[in-house]
Each structure stands twice: as structure tokens, then as C-alpha cells.
Amino acid sequence: MAIKTCAEKFPAVEFVYPVHLNPNVQKTVHGLLSGLTNVHLMEPLDYAHFIWLMNKSHVVLTDSGGLQEEAPALGKPVLVMRDVTERQEGIDSGTALLVGTNSQIIIDSLSLLLTDKQAYEKMAKAISPYGDGTACRRIVDIVTAG
User: What is the number of helices (H) and of strands (E) in the chain?
Assistant: First the structure.
């Protein structure tokens, strides 16, 4: 319901939703969001395509633990649609915001990030507690130097 409300509130914003293959999820999501021209429902993507899409995104809404770590490495604010998270360090660092499952809180949080550049930049520029995405390069440099 929150995505539908935000899609209607922000018709110029494109919402991309890779929908879980579970038939119950499919039925619910398609029932709520089909027909909204700025909502794009798609099958789940392979990892490389998903990272590409996430990199092109402005904000990430998720209940996935992994995405709470990956999106900040791309400079994407994360709204965590859970009541609790095992990735508290993302919340503490400011790269993620725990918004729970309450539609109004999700709507208000996403609306703020879409309309308040300062609020957006604060999350997007927060230092990710999960690394800077350059570990592989540093390892290669160490191995080849020694």
C-alpha cells in the first residue's frame, strides 16, 4: 500500500519492483500495483543485473539483509521495511533507516528522501560501515607488491 500511495503522490518517479516468485506474493503485489504507469513489476533479477539496477536507483526500499549492506556501498539510502534488523550498524551509521511495516511511516520516510535534498544527501553520503567497495583492489595491491 505504501508503494502505491507514493507512486500516486510522485507520478514522475519510476518505481521498479522485482517481485518474489511466491504465488501469494505475486497475487498481492500485482493486485495492488498493476495499472500504475510509474510502477514496473518484474521478475527477480540475477545478481549482476540487480546491482546495475540498484546503482541506477535513487533510494532502495527493502526487507533484505543483504541489500542493507550493498546499497550503501553504492551511495543509496536504504529504507528497511522491517521492525528489527540484524544489521544495526547501518542504522547507527545513517546509511539505512528502520521504517518497519507501517505504511504511513514508509510513505513519510520515502517522501522526505524524494523532496528534501539535505535529508537525502545525509543518508547517501554517510560512511558505510560495511566497507568502501575497494577491498579486492587493496588485496591485489598487497599480493602483487609483496
Answer: 8, 5
Instruction: Note every long-range contact of 85-90, with CB atoms under 8 Å and residues 24 or more positions apart, other chains counting.
Output: 89/129, 89/130, 90/128, 90/129, 90/130
- CA 120 to mean position of chain CA atoms: 13
CATH number at residue 38: 3.40.50.2000
Structurally, the chain folds into a number of domains equal to 1
Which tens digits make up the pLDDT trace of 4-17? 999 999 999 999 99
Model-level pTM? 0.88
Domain of residue 31 covers: 2-145
Angle between helices 2-9 and 103-115 (to 10 degrees): 30
- What own/partner pairs with CB < 8 Å and gap ≥ 24 does 39-45 have? 39/3, 39/4, 39/7, 39/15, 40/14, 40/15, 40/16, 41/17, 42/16, 42/17, 42/18, 43/18, 43/19, 44/18, 44/19, 44/20, 45/18
